[in-house]
Design goal:
Blueprint lengths: L1 H7 L3 H4 L6 H13 L12 H18 L15 H13 L7 H26 L5 H15 L6 H8 L9 H20 L7
Helix pairs in contact: 3-5, 4-5, 4-6, 4-9, 6-9
Length: 195
C-alpha cells in the first residue's frame, strides 16, 4: 500500500478511503489489467476456434502483465473485467450441447491451463533468454547430470535432442485440452466421441 500511495502521491492511510485492504487493491488491479476480452465473431458456431482465440488472448494478458501471476487466486471471479472474460468464453460454448455445469467446468479448465502455462513459462523467459536458449541450456545441464540407469526416460529425451527443439508447448497443450472438450461434446450429442 505504501508503494502505491507513493506512486500516486498520496498518504498511505488515505488509500484506505478507497480500498479496504491490500487484497482488495490487488483484486481491483488485476481486474483492470484484464481489459476487454476479444471479439469472437461467429465463435458460437465454431466453439473450438473461439476457445483457441480466447486462450491466446488470455495468455497475452499475462505476458503484458506478468505481475498478475504473483497475485494469488482467492476464488471465482466476481469483478466485471474477469466476468466479461468468463462470459466471452461461455458464449463460445453456446451451441455445443454442454450443460451449464459442463460449460463452467470447461472454462475453469481453460483458465487453469492458460494461467499454469504462463506461471511456468514467464519466469523462465524473463531471464534475458529466449525460450529456445533456455531449453537448450537446460538440456546441456541435464546432459551432464542425468544418467540412463537412474533416469532412463529423461535420458531418452536428452538423447533425442528434445531440449534443442523449439516446439510451441502452449499450442500442443491447448490442442490436447480442446481435443478432450471435443470428446465430451461428441459424447453429449450422441456422436462417437472417438471418431
Amino acid at each position: 500500500m505504501a508503494r502505491v500511495a507513493e506512486r500516486l502521491d498520496f498518504a498511505t492511510m488515505s488509500l484506505y478511503r478507497h480500498v479496504s485492504s491490500k487484497d482488495e487493491l490487488h483484486s481491483l488491479m488485476v481486474d483492470m489489467a484484464y481489459g476487454k476480452p476479444p471479439l469472437l465473431e461467429g465463435s458460437d458456431k465454431d466453439w473450438r476456434g473461439g476457445l483457441e482465440l480466447w486462450a491466446r488472448a488470455f495468455l497475452e494478458i499475462f505476458r503484458r502483465h506478468p505481475w498478475m501471476l504473483q497475485v494469488p487466486v482467492s476464488g471465482p471471479p466476481l469483478e466485471p473485467g474477469q466476468m466479461s472474460w468468463l462470459e466471452c468464453g461461455l458464449r463460445t460454448l453456446g451451441r455445443t450441447g454442454l450443460s451449464p455445469n459442463e460449460k463452467l467446468s470447461v472454462m475453469l479448465l481453460m483458465v487453469g491451463y492458460v494461467r499454469n502455462n504462463a506461471q511456468v513459462s514467464m519466469p523462465l523467459t524473463s531471464q534475458d533468454q529466449s525460450e529456445e536458449e533456455l531449453m537448450a541450456n537446460y538440456g546441456r545441464a541435464m546432459d551432464k547430470f542425468v544418467d540412463a540407469e537412474t533416469f532412463p526416460a529423461v535420458r531418452e529425451l536428452i538423447e533425442a535432442g528434445t531440449f534443442q527443439e523449439t516446439d510451441d508447448d502452449f499450442t500442443f497443450g491447448l490442442e490436447r485440452v480442446l481435443d478432450g472438450i471435443e470428446v465430451l461434446i461428441r459424447k453429449n450429442t450422441g456422436e462417437n466421441p472417438l471418431a
